[in-house]
Amino acid sequence: MPSQPHCPEPRRATRRAFLVGGMGLTALALTGCDPKNSPAPSTSGTSTAPVIRSFNFGTAAEPMNLDPSLSGDNETFRITRQIYEGLIGVDRETGAPIPKLATNWIVSPDRLQFTFILRRGVKFHDGTDFDAAAVVANFEHWMALPSDARASSEQGFHQVFRHHEEIPKLPSTIPESKPSADASGSKIVDPEELAEHTRATALLESLRDQLKAQPFVGASSGGSASYFGSIKAADTYTVVLTLRQPITGLIEALSLPGLAIASPQALGTKPVENGRYSYISSQPVGTGPYAFVSWKDKSVTLRTFPDYWNTDLMAANPTAPTVVTFKEISTPAGRLGALGREEIDGFDMVTLTGLRELVREGKLIVQRDPYSVTYLGMNRTNKWLAKSEFRRALAHAIDRQKVIEQFYISGTKEARSFLPASLGIAPSETYYGPDTRLTKELIESSGYDGTPIPFLYPLNISRAYLPLPELIYAEISRQLSAVGIMVAPVPVDWNDGYVSKVRSGEVAGLHLLGFNGGYRDPDDFIGGLFSTPTQQFGYDSPVLKAQVLLARSIPTGDERTNAYKEISTTLARDLPALPLVFPISALAFNDNVKNYPSSPVLDEVFSDVRLNT
């Protein structure tokens, strides 16, 4: 547990540390121009005018909004991480939780009560004080989100506390496999299917017993499976959070950008734009090192907050940017060109082809360790994708290594589960490697008649997990057609609601998407993708839901590791989606940037950027 205020390191890491290889900078021969610094009118009353250090960052898309509790995209979080802070931070070297707005925390022996000692002397950008009442107000804001607003949220309250979820209703039995005729005409059941039925039946009985033995305690203001009990201010700078069931990764989860603390005064202000749920959707007010200035013409501008509480941090980096501008440039080629023309100082999601050019030009390249997964979704409300044989045929048709070699940076690995290797969970033994013969056998047994399968993919966007989505789509569709699986392309512009179209399931077929981990715990990936019934996959498994619900409460150790391996096995057998790759992602900068604080979980705050002066 952390011990003292303003402490940059925890007294001890509460979970196993992991290395962040992306912290290493590949500093290539630097060439270019002088930093773009200029004097500004003094606001301090001294005779020396402060220096403005500009930092212009090219983004792939505009933010959806600037209320992190209503957001689900990393371009939004990239900006809100500069403005807001949460109770818990992340150590960039180890990934361990560290003090942020909470300086200490105490966990009760039953792991149901968390007492947070809050940092004193912190002000929001509107001049109001940060205290326990502010924390309670934010929890009340999150709990009150209507269902349509919750649908836009990721990495926030409802993902961590599952506030509106219900206890899963397990089936009474697992259906037995039907016998088939062998070469002699005798009726037999495949021995592997018999063994799988035995395994699944044993799992079902175990889950039923565990749910009875570990009931949720206390009343719930949400669903029966809500982990949230209450949040109370014990005094001005002490908050007590009570759970109905333990969450092993709770402290790590509280570092998520969707759980950042906003000004209660701003939360209580009427939205200034029609169609916005909250005032802070367009006028964000946090406690972070940068305060909001403007959002117009597809650009967001921030400026350093003069009353920021962490004066030691700011003093330790005298070359940090003082004015930050995020400029939307939707295409990789556009961002590459803007960097060359010095219209921006850096950008994210460097493509493989762009990387070669950047290396030739001697740009600064910063890589991140893989902590995201790219997947091919299979919506089983489609007639053919509803068939297990057809989904397996499709999975065996895809050669992931060819996709990696063509479109991903060196070091990208094939994904055999949804959990990155750094989490220490072995993948399922069920593996869908490329196998043309088996694919054709499975296609024949499914009765597939050549009907094209709708295939959604995004346009005009780059993501760490999808650097070149149009080309990745083209390669996968080529591989499918080579074995006789036809697809009907459904391109959707990212800014025209690609993600919401995929998640709504309105086009039942295949789709490309990915998930970037927000904190170091397997529940972040598994829970974020599959804990609740989702129209994205047309998949609702009470067995899987019970597995996820129980696993997230198991204390760290072998039992928990084995529980998540069993979850990976369930997902591999049910196959609602095929994990494709764990991608390496990279950023590029001009020579006015000396250091950039990369993070696998994208916790990259620009007060740690070092500019050349």
Please tell me the overall pLDDT.
89
Q: In whole angstroms, how far apart are the ends?
A: 39 Å
How large is the count of helical segments?
Answer: 18
Structural classification? alpha+beta
**Helix content range:** 25-40%
Shape: globular
The biggest beta sheet is recorded as:
9 strands, mixed
Topology, number of strands: 25
Weakly predicted, low-confidence segments: 1-47
Nearest-angstrom radius of gyration? 25 Å
Oligomer: single chain
Strand content: 15-25%
Can you give a write-up of this model?
By secondary structure, this protein is of the alpha+beta class. Helix content is 28%, strand content 20%. The strands form 6 sheets. Strands 1, 2, 3, 12, 13, 14, 15, 16 and 23 form a 9-stranded mixed sheet that branches. A 6-stranded mixed sheet has the order 18-22-17-21-19-20, with helices on both faces. It has a 4-stranded antiparallel sheet with strand order 6-7-11-10, with helices on one face. β8 (180-181) and β9 (187-188) form a beta hairpin. α16 (522-530) packs antiparallel against α17. The longest helix has 23 residues, at 191-213. The chain is globular and about 95 Å long.
